[in-house]
Every structure is written in C-alpha cells, then in structure tokens.
Amino acid sequence: MTINSLTKNTKHLLHALYQSGVRHFVVSPGSRTTPVALLLAEYARQNKNIKLYIDVDERSAGFFALGIAKKLLEPVALLGTSGTAITEYTSAVAEAHISHIPLIVLSTDRPVELQDNGAPQTIPQHQIFGALTKKFVVFTLQDEQPDVTSYIDFMTQKLVHEIVMSPRGPLQINLPLRKPLMPQLNEPTAIIVPLLKFDAIDDSMSPMKLSESRVVIIAGPNEGADYQSELLNFSKKYHVPIIADVLSRTRQKTTIYGIDALIKANILTSAYQPDLVIRFGATPVSARILEWLKSENIPVWFVGENTLADHSRHVSRVLQLTPTSFLSQISVDNNAEFYQRWQDLNQKKRYITGEASIANVLDRVLPDQTAVFVANSMAIRDMDDVFTGQTTQNIYANRGANGIDGIISTALGMSSTSQKRSVLLTGDLTLFHDMNGLMMARQYYLPIDIIVINNNGGAIFSFLPQATAEPYFDMLFGTPLNLNVSKIADLYELAYVKIKTADELERVIKIPVTGTRLIEFESNRSNNVKAHQQLMGGVQHE
Amino acid sequence: MTINSLTKNTKHLLHALYQSGVRHFVVSPGSRTTPVALLLAEYARQNKNIKLYIDVDERSAGFFALGIAKKLLEPVALLGTSGTAITEYTSAVAEAHISHIPLIVLSTDRPVELQDNGAPQTIPQHQIFGALTKKFVVFTLQDEQPDVTSYIDFMTQKLVHEIVMSPRGPLQINLPLRKPLMPQLNEPTAIIVPLLKFDAIDDSMSPMKLSESRVVIIAGPNEGADYQSELLNFSKKYHVPIIADVLSRTRQKTTIYGIDALIKANILTSAYQPDLVIRFGATPVSARILEWLKSENIPVWFVGENTLADHSRHVSRVLQLTPTSFLSQISVDNNAEFYQRWQDLNQKKRYITGEASIANVLDRVLPDQTAVFVANSMAIRDMDDVFTGQTTQNIYANRGANGIDGIISTALGMSSTSQKRSVLLTGDLTLFHDMNGLMMARQYYLPIDIIVINNNGGAIFSFLPQATAEPYFDMLFGTPLNLNVSKIADLYELAYVKIKTADELERVIKIPVTGTRLIEFESNRSNNVKAHQQLMGGVQHE
Hints:
Chains A, B: Its EC number is 2.2.1.9. Chains A, B: Residues 407-511 form the Thiamine pyrophosphate enzyme TPP-binding domain. The structure is a homodimer of 542-residue chains. With 542 residues, chain A is of the alpha/beta class. Chain A has helices spanning 5-19, 34-46, 58-72, 84-87, 90-98, 146-164, 228-238, 259-264, 287-295, 323-329, 336-344, 356-365, 378-386, 407-416, 428-433, 438-444, 470-478, 485-491, 502-510, 525-533; strands at 24-27, 51-54, 76-80, 103-109, 135-138, 171-176, 197-200, 208-210, 215-219, 242-244, 276-280, 300-303, 317-320, 330-332, 372-374, 395-396, 422-427, 448-454, 495-499, 516-522. Chain A has three domains: 5-179, 3-Layer(aba) Sandwich (Rossmann fold), CATH 3.40.50.970; 208-347, 3-Layer(aba) Sandwich (Rossmann fold); 356-533, Thiamin diphosphate (ThDP)-binding fold, Pyr/PP domains (Rossmann fold, 3-Layer(aba) Sandwich). In chain A, the strands form four sheets. Chain A has a six-stranded parallel β-sheet with strand order 2-1-3-4-6-5, sandwiched between helices. In chain A, strand 1 (24-27), helix 2 (34-46) and strand 2 (51-54) form a beta-alpha-beta unit. In chain A, helix 3 (58-72) runs parallel beside helix 5 (90-98). At the A-B interface, helix 3, helix 5, helix 14 and helix 16 of A face helix 3, helix 5, helix 14 and helix 16 of B.
C-alpha cells in the first residue's frame, strides 16, 4: 500500500510537532478531525513520550491545555473540529496571549470549496483569533505536491520555535480537509522530518571550531549592520571564501561577486562545492545560489538575530546572534587551495555589454561611498552581476516586497538625508510607476542622478517563459509606453542628459551639477537578453 | 489663553515622538490633518532638529519617508488625512514590514460619530494595515481627561521603542478628530513629557552602583523564571526589602507579603517611602501598590526581557534583561534601619478570619512544593494577603486576562502533569462557570483537591461601589446560584467533603486520598467584607 498524501502529510505534521518539543495533545473529537485524531492516536501508541487527552468540551480543552503548558512551560497542542468548536478556544487563547504561553491550536476546517456557501459547520477560520495568536499558518494536508510536505516540516519547526521564544504566544495551524477523511492506519512508510535546529544564544556564544574544511559564507542583503571588516579579517585568517550580495555592504576585491552569472554559466563545478555554507542577512538577490545549495544538498546554517527567512526551506541550523558575535567566536581550518579556487572566480573574464555596462561604469567612476539606490527587476540583477563594490558599499534597494512602485520616492527620501550627490539606477517602467514622486525632487532640489535605462517596457519578462507567447507578449508583458524622458524632465524642471553609450556616463557623472538630473540611456529589450546570455562568454540559456 | 485639549494633546504627541528619536516628518496635508500639521509646522520652526517635508501625493510620501528611514535607520513619521489617502501608504508599509523599517503612520481620522454612516472620506482606519504594522494605537487628541495626555506621553515612547527594537516594523497611530480642527498657535504653555528611558542590554550589563539608599524591589507575578535564591542573597547583602507577590515564586520569610492590606490599613507611612523602586515581573495582584507608587511619585524602574506592561504609566526606566543578569551586576548601599523597618512589617499581627483563613491554613499545612492553582477574584486576593510561601512557591493563576471561565480546566491541566496531589482554591461562581471541566477529573482520575469557598455568588462585588445599589445588587452582582456542591461531586463521581471551619481543612488535607476531591467551605458574603476590613486590626474602608 502506497502512502497517500493525507496520511503522509498528517504524519509529517505530527512528527514535526514532536520534533519541536510538543509532547501533550488535547483532542476534542469531531468528524473533521478524523485523519489527524486517528494518526495521532496511532502515533501516541508507538511513542510513549506522547501524552494524549480527550476532552469533549473545547472550552475546557483549551484551558486544560493551558494548564499543562503553564506548568511545564512547553508548547501544548489542541486539536478541534470545524465551526464553533474552534471559537470555544478563544478565551484560553486570550489568556495565553497575555500571559505568554505557547498554546498551539490545530483547527481542522472545511475545504475551500465549502467556504461562505451555506455549508454546515463552516465559519471563516483563517486567523480567527486575530491579534491573539502570535503566528498563523495553513497546511493543506491532502495536497500531493511534494513541496507541501517539506513546507509542513520546515514551517512547523520554525513556527513552534518562534512561539517558544520570548515573548511567547499562541499559534494557530488551520487545516482545511475534504472528504474522504479516513487516513491509512498501520501504514509502514518511515517518516523522516529533516531537523531544523535552533541555537538561541542569549548572552555571548562560546568559542566553536568547525570541523568542515570547505566552509563558504554567503553575505546576503544587510541594511544597517556593519561587519565588513570583521568578515574580511575572518575570511583571510581562516581561508573562508565570501560570496557577497550587492546589498551585503561587504563587497570588496577579496569577496566573490556575480554568483548568479557564475552558476548560470555552469562554472561552479564540484571542485567548488562547499561542505558547509553559512548564510548572513536576507534573501540574496541571486535566486540561483539558493537553488544550487538545495539541489546539491549542501548543508546551510543561518546566522542572524531576526526571524529566519528561507523560502528554499533548506537551512538546517539557525544561530540567533549577530554576525559580528558569531565571527568573533568561530574558527575554521579551511583548505587553502579551495579558498584560492574561489578567489580566482573574480578573475574570470566578463563580457559586459548593453544595460549591464551602466552598472559597470558606476563601479569604476562613482565618488567614494556614494549612496546608490537600485530599482528592482533588471537593475538590481545587473548590479549583482557586475558591480564589484570597489568604490561604495552604500547600496540601497526595496528588497522586502520587491515592488516597482515607489522606487523614485524611496531614492529621493534616501538622497534627502545628505548633501552629497546620490544615484538611482532604474528602468523606464519603474520610473513611470512613481513619476509623481519627482515632484519632491523639484520642490526640495534634491542632489541625485536618476539613471534611466529606457528599454521601452518590462525587460525582465523577455527572460521568462512568457516571452515565447508572441501574439500577446508585448501587449501584456513588454508594455511599451514610449515614455519621453526629456519631457518628464521638462515637466518637473529637472536637468536632463541623454547618453548613447555607457562610456558617456563617466563623462556626465564628472560634470559638476546641483539638484536632480535625469540621465537617459536607451536600450533594446532583445539585445539585452543576448548581452546577458553572453556575460560569462559563450551562450547560456535561462 | 488657557491651552485647550486638542492643542495640548497634539503637542504632547509631537514632543513624545521627538523624545523617542523621531526627527523627520513627511506630511501630506488635508483638512483632517489641520491641528497636527499646523502644530508640527510651529514645532519645526522652534526646533531646528526637526525636518519637515510636504509631499502632496501620499503614495510618494510613504516611500519618501521609507527612503529616509532606510538610510538613517531611524523612525520616520508620516502624517496623512482621512480616507483613501491613508490606504495610499499601504505599499510602503508592506515594504517596511518585510524589510524591518520603523515607519510611523499618523493617520488622522473622522470621529466615532461619523463612522459607517455615509460621511465623506470615512473608511474604517483602525488597524487598516492589518498584520503589516507591528503595533497600533488610537489617541483621542480632543479628550479632556488628563489621563489621556499621560497615555499619549507613555504609549508613544513605549511603542516607538518597540518598533525600533528587533525585529523592527511599522506603527500606525490613528487619530480620530472632530471639528473644530483649528489648534491654538503661539500658545505659550510649556510641554513636559516625562521621559521613559529604555536600556536595551544586548549582551551582558556592566556593573552599576545605585546612589539611592532606600531602594525597594517589587517581585511581581512570574511564571517560570527562577531567581529566588539570587534575589534573597541580593536582599540580604545590600539590605534591600523585597515586596513579593504571591505569584512571584520568591515569597519566603524574609520577603514582605500582603502589601495590599498594609497599604489599605495606612501602615505605609513616609518612614517606609523608598527613593527608588525596581519592579520585576508582571502586574502585581495588589492594585494598591501601583497606585501608591504613583500617588507618592516614587521613581520606578522595570527590569525584564519582555515588553513593558505598566498600566499605571509610572515606570520611568526600563532595563531589558533578565532579573538574574540585573541582580548580578547591581550594588546598593541601602540604609540598614530602613531595611529593618520593612522586615518588621511581616511581624504585624493579622486577624485572619472567614474566607482568608483557608489560605492561611494552606500556608501552614501544605506538603512541600505542592502545586496550587488560585482562582481570580477573591481567592487570589486572599492568597496575596495572607499566604506567606513557607511551604510552596509553586503557585499558578490565570493572571493574563484574569477570567473566571476555564479555571477548573486550567487547574486540572496543571495537576495532570504530576503524580503529586495539587490544590485548587476557588469560589462557587468560578466553579460553576467551568463545571463541565470536571469531566476531565473523572475521566483521568486527576490527583487534586478543589477547595470551593461557597459564598453563594460573586463575593468580590460586595467590596465595590455597586454594593450600595441594594434593590438590584443581588440580582445583577451577587447572583446567588444556590449551587449544591455535593450533587456536583456526585454527578462527576468525585470525592466530597464539607468543612465548617478552616481548621478542619488541616485534618482533611492530611487524609490519604487518590483522585479528585471537592472540599466545600461555606461562607457568607457580608461577613466576608467585615473579615477583610479587620485583617490588620481596626476597621478600614475600601
């Protein structure tokens, strides 16, 4: 008998809860709880550390679980059936919210197709406790997508960890389920939930010597914290290669840049494969680096004070402290040859043409520590590919939600804080989205060069599968606006320069100027794709 | 010209923001912003550290403020007018949420009487950004209640502190305003916002010697953390009196108990007045102690890792670390006579009669480290008044939301974690609320004595002003249910004992027994009021 998705995912949820320290379950049975309750009862029979209580009145169950959690200061899980049964937990959740108790509500729910349609026992259960729960998640236990199983494994451990960290609080896990609800009992498939280990370091960390000899650090986007010199000293002392994101504030000649292009060009052969990768900072601009770590199954640790963000769900250990504290306590005996091999990557010849050459010129000619704001979409990718950080680490972007709205205004806000000239690198579509923002440049005469790469529309879509949908592509994705940048400058009374080649930018940047200036560079979307494919020489495919 | 509430409270808000580190304001004007915008412009003219930007497009304003906050890593405030204007901030708030930027939205709003009634530019603005904001608060700037001014002072500093602490995030301050909206300009009244100082201690704290010689520590409710021995050593070494809440897990013969009764009996004369009080833990059971600190204007510090909770708004300094770390680094040169005077308070004669004598007997006869759950309302007050903690520190209660629902189940949950007999002290009304919970006692044969003080209704209301509303009092507040506790025991198949005097409890507790037992003690609500008034001798009034 092959294990079905419902049985497999439910078992993963239960094992992941157990692995996160949940030992007590208080169940109020009902039809909708069937698969979870049955597999839990089976699990409790196999694992004597699990204590299972049945309490038919959900209000009482909520408080009973609270009593266990209060006494043991452990996470305790409730399991209840759909409808008002779930609302009965509200008082216990309120008490747990204020008195910081890690109560977990597993709320089984009707499936999406029965919502808001007159189906019995169906109430809107998503986030039903509102601000009373510290965290909330939905697991679709019947989903056949293997990624959902890995999501359940990873998120359960991450969220239970978050609710047992100060200030503790409740968690709701909503479980929409459709009929048939019967799971497979006595199904023998072994369940393995990859461990996500958290080291919460309260005070200072004790010294730790890593046994791996091919350790690599990835310095991701980092707004604010300054650990560049500690990182560079560490790298040199222990021969640890540093892959530095363009937003990491640590790019410099001894750090590796442009990892995305290197992976795309298949340059990272097994000779480069680390036996441990340590990540700092937020999600890297390069999507390929996270995919590579996962596909090559390279162990990854994450170091940071804040909540772990790893949508690749591949991090296996989290050390909750600042990179600076971490670096001061770690020693590594890394292979020198391995280190040198990584260092040599910076020497690989880049064939930089087209739009990316703007980032390349900026890398050469910007005055020291110029603040640079980089738009999302193509601009940030070009910068990550070719900007080596020789002149400035002062790179900003909106990489939280990666929107293309509001970039002009954010860059102007950034530039308003300093008398020194700033730079914004953007495309024409992003410029148009926030064109109104230019009024602030006129009103406050802000010292910034806005470099507009004008490829007449959404260039990034030319790299994506929809580029082949020719009859509709330009209308829906290319969206050419035929923007007249010179007229925009005229409207907002800004200086305007048009450059034909990237090299002209060097001359323009050196002209003394005050206030805001629009610098337009005309490009072409189809040439741009070719230019990017040839970056590392040869032709690569997306 | 006397300053009016609108002008005064708005100035307090602006000063409190400034005091919390806000230097940049980005204003999108509109009718509803009138008072805040005008007073802000006046303030910025007086204080050159304030930088004021006007950006008429709110979407651009949101991102412009984000750009400033990103660059400076400081909290930056937006001010916008009611209606869709506020929704225009959503994209910037989303980016700030994910990338951890302390953006503050001051959203002026229509007043409550115009909500949901067809009034123009009126949308539901409370928590409008949902989970995208880390914190949310409403300030009623036109309110004449002086407490509202102090709320604005305190909460502004507390909330801005919370959003600049990791993980940083946005804050919405909603400001409902009714016409007339014109504030008083050039109004000369000096604005003083009491400073709320936060010391965020990342690693270990440096040693600190206090200059005060009459320092007192209040150990409040504390679930989990064990710092009793450190606290007692500290107290002895530096002659620092400890006022220990019954839920503090630190009550012992050298700590002061029953502070509420001592204040009520006017025993705390000026000879007892500290020059500094340091609070640990949650809100004390005694309401009088916080009122006393505030009315005597005694400086109070708060030590704790979690968010500060001080509804008296009197704490002036917060040290964010554990009591254990704090105690290890502090030294005090306290007055020995002062210390002795406080210690002598434990020798004051108590006249314990009626309901409180149950807590008194428990204090004498409980086996060592018995887990005791205490219901809210009268039971917890009695315990705080007379239980000295000689036998056990293992005291639990639901003091987050202080509900009387769910107490039976919580206590049963607590008792389920141990083979050792536990105790629950409760009144009859609390028993009735969660009578269903007794099913768990029957099903799992839980080892607990449930002591029910049966005064036939809500005894606590007899202490409150409504007790004088005789024609309605019993119906609405006394709510006598004439509960037959013996029949309840019979229904759930529990052992049952009725005691006539508290002394009988000693004998009953010593009888070997298994499973759950209901012990009923009959009381009388009017005698109970008298008994409490005479606790410290003489007659006190509420």
